[in-house]
Recover the amino acids of this structure.
């Protein structure tokens, strides 16, 4: 019979997804056979989620809310709807890039007042900055993108550290003749 042929044709499909309206014959058939079912009305949520993801562009602190909004939209989808989102990898990449950018900003911000003991923090921040893809180094050094102060803080810290090290070297050279004169005095006694 035709019904047996239809059932036989579907029996070999393990990951079949059927589209239709909730409560329709397609919905009932899918639930009886254990197939995925997607209500056509839910495609709007998928389209909105894909749009939010594609609208992110390059991750910056300025579009963190857009990234979070896209993530929330994706998380609110059912598992079968999530499977329909074709640009999910872009959302994951945006989140990873934002995390990387925030990590570098945090390292730069944590330098604080520069002392001779700041060298490790400054080197860590510089290495993190240098490991960024060029587009993110550009973002952190371009005033109109709202992140200029972080790069400027890093370069100012490096300059201040170099100045402190140079001053220490001058001070040590200036102190050397005085130390030699003190050592020439020899042992001091009360007699």
């Amino acid at each position: 019979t035709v019904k047996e042929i239809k059932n036989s044709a579907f029996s070999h499909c393990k990951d079949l997804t059927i589209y239709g309206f909730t409560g329709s014959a397609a919905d009932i058939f899918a639930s009886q056979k254990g197939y995925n079912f997607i209500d056509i009305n839910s495609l709007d949520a998928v389209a909105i989620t894909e749009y939010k993801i594609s609208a992110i562009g390059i991750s910056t602190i300025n579009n963190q809310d857009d990234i979070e909004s896209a993530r929330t939209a994706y998380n609110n989808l059912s598992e079968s709807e999530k499977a329909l989102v074709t640009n999910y990898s872009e959302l994951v990449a945006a989140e990873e890039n934002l995390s990387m950018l925030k990590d570098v900003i945090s390292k730069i911000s944590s330098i604080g007042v520069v002392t001779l003991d700041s060298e490790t923090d400054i080197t860590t921040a510089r290495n993190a900055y240098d490991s960024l893809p060029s587009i993110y180094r550009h973002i952190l050094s371009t005033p109109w993108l709202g992140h200029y102060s972080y790069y400027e803080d890093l370069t100012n810290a490096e300059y201040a550290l170099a100045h402190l090290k140079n001053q220490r070297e001058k001070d040590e050279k200036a102190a050397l003749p005085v130390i030699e004169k003190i050592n020439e005095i020899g042992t001091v006694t009360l007699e």
